[in-house]
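quick one, 208 residues, struct below
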Amino acid sequence: MKVKVQTLDAKGKGEIELKDEIFGLEPRADILHRVVTWQLEKRRATARPTRERSDVARTGKKFGRQKGGGTARHGDRRAPVFIGGGKAHGARLRDFNPSLNKKIRALGLKMALSSKAKDGKLIVMETLELKDAKTKALQGNLEKLGFGKTALVIDGDQVETSFALAANNLREINMLPAIGANVYDILKHDTLVLTRAAVEKLEARFNG
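---
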């Protein structure tokens, strides 16, 4: 698959050959759904569990007589009404970290990349380097390039500093290094923007 390479000035820089086994797959909704669900569940933090009556280390001996003491008839000190007693209906420890096969995760990322390429929502840039890291100047360039309402920009080892500074105030632009590419963020944005360096990193990631 060949895709045109552009610059931030909306000028052509030739073409790049994208591997069909990464950018040319037929997307499957079930695979993408599994990976996105796995990602979102991995983000959830487990609640800190509290100790209930059965977890508190206190004596179970009845500490007062049944009648005549002038107090309620408690059987032990583990009751929630006592200081140091167990919590009533406390937070339980729940596991939100399901496992997902590495092959399925890799396949999901390939399909997410392929879906953007198939829909014509994939833009490949030569580089993200800017002469002046100015937000206003960058906005004008983005309109010419057709980044859409929201765009995810993925660079090589790290996002180009000048571009990051200029795009930091733009709510519709999100940036990631190639190592942070993931299915959820790719599908969430209208347009996927990759640099040459990002394409090389992604292809090397799957070949490795």
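Residues 102-118 form the longest helix (17 residues).
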